[in-house]
Amino acid sequence: MSFSALARFAMALPGATQDIKWGADWVASVGGKMFLVGGPHPGTWTHCSFKVDDHRFLELTGLPGLAPAPYAARYHWVAVSDAKALPLAELKALVKRSHELVAGKLPKKLRLSLGIGA
């Protein structure tokens, strides 16, 4: 699976928007808060990062091809440097969960306006 396919999946999630940050990183956000970062942009991605549940952080960062995300590890973000490090279904589930974790912290009124359940 390519990281660009993961980006397409992320953009199909409720309320997802995209932009470029730091001059070279593609970012998916919900309610203005990032849930997936990939890069470099433009070009073929070499990595992506996303938020994970606290209890999964150590497990995932111990796998080959995954590591604590630079500058964001304290917020339980992991960096994936190998698109084949995890099966496609699991990568999609982790990105979906990242979206849920970030969206869950948004104010209820904003979540509802984005079409994200009560």
Task: List the keywords.
118 residues, 6 strands, 34% helix, alpha+beta, Aspartate Aminotransferase, domain 1, 6-stranded antiparallel β-sheet, 4 helices
Gyration radius over CA:
13 Å
**Beta-strand residue percentage:** 25-35%
CATH fold node name: Aspartate Aminotransferase, domain 1
Q: Helical proportion?
A: 25-40%
Distance between the termini: 33 Å
Low-confidence stretches: none
DSSP summary: helix tally? 4
Mean pLDDT: 91
The number of domains: 1
Q: Going across the major beta sheet, what is the strand order? A: 1-2-3-4-6-5
Q: What's the CATH C level?
A: Alpha Beta
- Largest sheet data: 6 strands, antiparallel
Give structural notes.
The chain is an alpha+beta fold and 118 residues long. The chain has a single domain (3-113), classed as Alpha-Beta Complex (Aspartate Aminotransferase, domain 1). The protein is built from 4 helices and 6 strands; from the N terminus they run H-E-E-E-E-H-E-E-H-H. The chain has helices at residues 3-11, 54-61, 88-104, 108-113, and strands at residues 16-21, 25-30, 33-39, 47-51, 66-68, 77-80. The protein has a 6-stranded antiparallel beta sheet with strand order 1-2-3-4-6-5. A hairpin with a 2-residue loop joins strand 2 and strand 3 (33-39). The protein is globular. The termini are far apart. The model has no long low-confidence stretch (mean pLDDT 91).
Any chance you could write out the topology, listing elements then pairs?
Layout: H1 3-11, E1 16-21, E2 25-30, E3 33-39, E4 47-51, H2 54-61, E5 66-68, E6 77-80, H3 88-104, H4 108-113
Antiparallel strand pairs: 1-2, 2-3, 3-4, 4-6, 5-6
